[in-house]
Amino acid sequence: MIPAGIVPDTLLGRCLRSPGGRAWLDAVPGLLAARLAAWNLTPDLAPGEPAHAGMWALVVPVRRGGERLALKLSRPFPETASEAPALRLWDGHGAVRLLEEDAASSTLLLERLDAGRRLQDVPFPEAARVWGGLVRELSVAPDERPCWGQFERIDAVAERWSDELPERWERLGRPFPRWLLEAGLEVASTRGAVGRRGGRDVLVHTDLHGMNVLAVPDGGPAAPDGGASFRAIDPQASVGEGEFGVAPMLWNRLPELAGPDAPAALLERCALLAREAGLDPEAARDWAVLREVENALWYAERAGHEGDFTRSLWVASALCRRLLPGLPAVEDLKRLD
């Protein structure tokens, strides 16, 4: 039986405001019931307790025998297509372990992690050390297995952006100075398919920020130093230079940098994260500039994202060592929670 009120209000609101969201919500009870029966699962929720919500996914704590697991049902989006193939390749090394998959319903059965203990809440630089160790584990090199063909290539994305970004910038009325656009385009041309600088191709979790890293529950395996062990979740996986994956750890913890030296502190964080992961700090900075220039245009194209747009401009220009005038102080930027 599926408990009533299982969909959290945050996910409910997002779905009701988006095209096709209500239809997906209406289908959730039937989809969940089918997977519970097929995989012999029992919901592990107190009466009236909602499940956990991802951005576009419902995660239900379940049990199978004495095993505590998590059933994840995602709204079908292109971004979710790489999740199961990536998790199979990682096989529990640095990322949550995948036990079952039903592609037709976009449902995964996963090991259960501790949703109340996120890397987001671990102070720097300890969080950077943990994150760097995970990136090293996740940086699997391509081999002959056919599943590698399911992942988008990062250099191809950069090449596409080099064509698209100028047109988008013009169409939007040149929403930020040309020099910042050109800084992003320089990265796209030098790190794209035409101008690669010899980076090593690996599988990259492109959304690996602190809220997408959860602790293994008490009683599970500890980290080598005896502390909490962490696993990555919710991968949006691509193949290319590992430095592409540093950016989300920069824009998700900005309020911690409050003070007059915030731009310099952001650059120091970028370098620290790269070093902990065995990556090139300058390449990490380059990719973060390009990603935030593209993010700024994405936000500018959509209503209601003014705060996100401003945050992306702050990050991109700070990483260029040329902070745009008139932007809010870092502590006043829109938060990502």
Helices and strands in order, then pairings?
Layout: H1 9-16, H2 21-38, E1 42-43, E2 52-53, E3 57-64, E4 67-74, H3 83-90, E5 98-102, E6 107-111, E7 114-118, H4 126-138, E8 152-153, H5 154-171, H6 178-191, E9 201-205, E10 213-215, E11 230-232, E12 237-241, H7 248-251, H8 262-276, H9 281-300, H10 306-319
Parallel strand pairs: 8-12
Antiparallel strand pairs: 1-3, 2-3, 3-4, 4-6, 5-6, 7-10, 9-12, 10-11
Helix pairs in contact: 1-2, 4-8, 5-6, 6-9, 8-9, 9-10
How is this structure best described in words?
- The protein has 337 residues and is an alpha+beta fold.
- The chain folds into 2 domains: 9-116, 2-Layer Sandwich (Phosphorylase Kinase, domain 1); 123-332, Aminoglycoside phosphotransferase (APH), C-terminal lobe (Aminoglycoside 3'-phosphotransferase, Chain: A, domain 2), CATH 3.90.1200.
- It has helices at residues 9-16, 21-38, 83-90, 126-138, 154-171, 178-191, 248-251, 262-276, 281-300, 306-319, and strands spanning 42-43, 52-53, 57-64, 67-74, 98-102, 107-111, 114-118, 152-153, 201-205, 213-215, 230-232, 237-241.
- Strands 1, 2, 3, 4, 5 and 6 form a 6-stranded antiparallel β-sheet that branches. A 3-stranded antiparallel β-sheet has the order 7-10-11, covered by helices on one side.
- 41% of the residues are buried.
- The model has no long low-confidence stretch (mean pLDDT 91).
